[in-house]
Amino acid sequence: MTSFPSDLRYTHDHEWLRAAGSAWRVGITQFAVDQLGDITLVDLPREGDLVTKGQRFGTIESVKSVSDLYAPVSGKVTAVNASLKDAPEQVNSEPYGGGWMIELEPTEKSEIDELLAPDAYTAHVAAQ
Amino acid sequence: MERKRTPLWELHKQHGARLIDFGGWDLPIAYPAGTIKEHKAVREAVGLFDVSHMGEVYLRGDRVREAIEQLTTNAVAAAPPGKAVYTLLCRPSGGVVDDCIFYKRSDTEFFVVVNASNTAKDLEWFREHTHGLCDVEDASEATALIAVQGPKAVALVDQLAGGKLAGLASFTFTDAEIAGVACVAARTGYTGEDGFELACANADAPALWTALTDHLPPGGLPIGLAARDTLRLEARLPLYGNDLDDDHTPLEAGLGWAVKLDREFLGARALREQKQHGLARQLVGFKIADEARAIARHGYAVVDRSLGRGEAAVIGSVTSGGPGICVGGAIGLAYVPAACATPGTQLLIDCRGKDTPATVVSGKFYKRTQP
Q1: Domain definitions of chain A by residue range
Q2: Tell me, what's the pLDDT at A1?
């Protein structure tokens, strides 16, 4: 069983969030990475774009499939991991580190509180 | 339903493979190295593939050549013993039932390897259209198939066969003993690389696989289905169900070289007519513009925006697409109107709502440099 970092919050769509000042950094979990296989392309929004919780904010192409990235919370994109453009494989090798995707400044604080704690996410994955 | 397992299933688990449902079979999509490393291992060293899910059929009898002559688009029946011949099986309409390789053992015995997903359909097709002229024996359940592909594949297999196989010519085969296992060893493959495909009894397959993995040279890896697909696409080898089907003919698919129209066979009349009238549509290779940063996949529409939006704009369809792992960018195959089939033609592909430019390219995306 994969274990998930205890300092992160999670979504049912297998994304993680980590507090970064007043913003939250977003990536995808090891479970998602294992499902996708080798990632070849990550298409992300621009800095300053507004995203809405549950709406598509980007796409991930792996060798075999394409998947949407859904915004975990509503907010403004304050940073984008530009290094993924030339090195998308970082998502495979360091999903919680260099493979991060965007940083969001949430518009609704309460949406952060609704995210899953590590144990709840672990249970969610176990039920898959 | 319980997924079917090949005789190598336990070994795949030990290798740490990720197994998926592939047409009812529990097969490795990738091993821990991952698809990109696996793909490169085949291009640079050697890869081992468990393709035991594929179907194997024996056709035997004094009149087997007569029967086969009717079934195959290529000149299979007249081939010399020891020759492997790629051919299509066609319907009277010219649509493709399957693509497969016939191995001629003698004038009275042929061994056929067919696509896994088509095994039942092909057996029925053989039984119906050989009209009792030969015996049709399904050996699929008893036969394992291991492909060894890459620039170091021949040395690996040859070393385990007492140095008897390196001289085997391309598209020929022989009975051989490899690591003590009785095999049919064929100099064929589905990757664009040199190598062998080895058929053996199920019970012997783990010993053969283990001998191959024990002797793997540096850089060699076991290879999953995902890399099998990216490898064959780079080499522009068609996949039945994607690039070939009942609705398209071998001529449209660019496989005219495997269709010998100076003979009579199922579909010959329709194919001759099609050739005479010219092709309305053709399978082309395309490369997505690098700046588009997209991959066009099976089922995406090729569109002409001068015709409007929606269905009216659809002029063709992507049949295969993926990353060109060794050639770079994103590549694919699509059926398009003949007028759009000239290399250099600019296509527009609807990639999930985004019109994405692509260019028609000729020939294989990847061609190996060594003979």
Answers
A1: 9-108
A2: 54
Tell me how far apart the alpha carbons of residues A89 and A6 are, in angstroms, rounded to a whole number.
Answer: 24
Mean residue pLDDT of chain B comes to 97
Mutate to test the interface with A, among B31, B293, B350, B354 (most CBs of A within 10 A): B293
CATH class of the region A9-108: mainly beta
Contact present, B147 and B187 (Cβ < 8 Å): no
Q: What is the pLDDT of residue B369?
A: 83
pTM passes above 0.90: yes
Condensed to tens digits (0 to 9), the pLDDT of residues B336-365 reads: 999 999 999 999 999 999 999 999 999 999
Task: Give the distance from residue A11's alpha carbon to the nearest chain B alpha carbon, in angstroms.
Answer: 24
Query: Residue A127: CB partners within 8 Å, gap ≥ 6?
Result: none
Facing residues of A11 across strands? none
Tokens describing residue B190: 């589905």
Say what the ipTM of the complex is. 0.85
Q: Taking a C-beta distance cutoff of 8 angstroms, is the pair B236, B363 a contact?
A: yes
Q: Domains of chain B by range and CATH? A: 1-277 (3.30.1360.120), 280-361 (2.40.30.110)
Alpha-carbon gap, residue B328 to B347, rounded angstroms: 19
